[in-house]
Write a structure and sequence with these properties.
The chain is α/β, with parallel strands linked by helices. The chain is built from 11 helices and 9 strands. Keywords: Oxidoreductase.
Length: about 325
């Protein structure tokens, strides 16, 4: 039955990871190369996520990176996965993404999240006096939709450019709360199963059961973001994935570092408790050669009925990372 259904669209989440021994400038250069590579391979979207005060993540000025990548590609959609809306005023986001959509028509996506994308101290610096104000994420999403629509052309406050661009808005989530909002607004839903898999199945069930059709979307649309480390053999993929596991161990322990080179074994690096915590975060990760990943993706799609998959790959060697995205594209095209 799997071959009788339509091909599964596949996309890229680039976390602009800074690797050991390199700089953010190297990261941005590699992002351009990866975007051009994945565009040729048939990937649908190329998204960046807003993070702040993280040594290994260089996507703090998210809209600038989106413009940079869109300017170096031709057809792939480029967007945010996501913009952390409580950090910004809806008008400024509308102007920024309206500008992007004016420069690159029909190629810009706007994924929105409610988390700060950083620690609480940094969030205070970003938001200033607004830090203690009530969060109005649902209302701010509606404001954004209006600013980007033609319906706002007689308002006293307008997004210029932006008005009438109708930039597609996505709701991002890592818990069930966002599922209710995406469903009630009739918007596509992207879930962060690449780091928060615990609520994934429950959240997409809630989203589908409560979905209300809207002017922009008639039926639920679920995109799952997953970790992928693909290589020619299972053994090589497992070796490359030790960089990813070291990165997640830094998140678990609070000792964040730049992306480390792969190592032969994690046995002497982590404790049993750290290993268990990392493996829980990596519950939705696809690590292996083509045959293993094909079987895993077939099972995952059958279980979740997702409409699109977004891939993030923390791989130290740039050429190995390019190869991983190529292998995964070939797997998806042949599912």
């Amino acid at each position: 039955m799997q071959n009788e259904i339509s091909p599964l669209p596949f996309s890229v989440l680039d976390l602009a990871t800074v690797i050991q021994g390199k700089t953010p400038a190297d990261t941005f250069k590699n992002s351009v190369a990866l975007a051009q590579h994945t565009e040729k391979l048939g990937y649908t979207r190329y998204w960046f996520a807003e993070h702040h005060n993280m040594v290994s993540v260089a996507s703090s000025a998210t809209s600038l990176l989106i413009g940079h990548i869109a300017g170096h590609t031709k057809t792939i959609r480029v967007g945010s996965g996501g913009i952390m809306l409580p950090n910004h005023s809806p008008l400024i986001v509308a102007e920024q993404f309206g500008t992007l959509a004016t420069l690159y028509p029909n190629r810009i996506d706007l994924g929105l999240g409610r988390a700060p994308g950083t620690d609480q101290l940094t969030a205070m610096e970003i938001r200033g006096e607004r830090f203690s104000a009530p969060h109005n994420f649902p209302q701010d999403v509606l404001k954004l939709q209006k600013y980007l629509s033609n319906d706002n052309n007689d308002s006293k406050v307008r997004a210029i450019p932006g008005e009438g661009t109708e930039v597609p808005i996505w709701i991002l989530g890592s818990s069930t709360e966002s599922a209710h909002l995406a469903a009630s607004y009739g918007l596509p839903y992207a879930f962060a199963s690449h780091f928060a898999p615990a609520y994934f199945l429950e959240a997409i069930k809630i989203y589908r059961q409560n979905f209300r059709p809207s002017a922009t979307l008639q039926k639920p649309y679920v995109m799952a973001c997953v970790n992928v480390v693909a290589a020619d053999t299972d053994a090589e993929a497992e070796r490359l994935a030790t960089s990813l596991k070291q990165l997640f161990m830094g998140i678990v322990t609070g000792k964040r570092r730049l992306l480390q080179p792969p190592i032969e074994s994690m046995d002497n690096v982590w404790s049993d408790i750290e290993e268990e915590a990392v493996n829980q975060m990596l519950a939705v990760a696809f690590i292996g050669g083509p045959e293993k990943l094909t079987a895993q993706m077939q099972s995952f799609r059958a279980q979740t009925q997702i409409d699109e998959v977004m891939v993030t790959s923390h791989i130290y060697d740039h050429e190995a990372r390019l190869h991983s995205y190529q292998l995964f594209a070939e797997i998806l095209k042949n599912l």
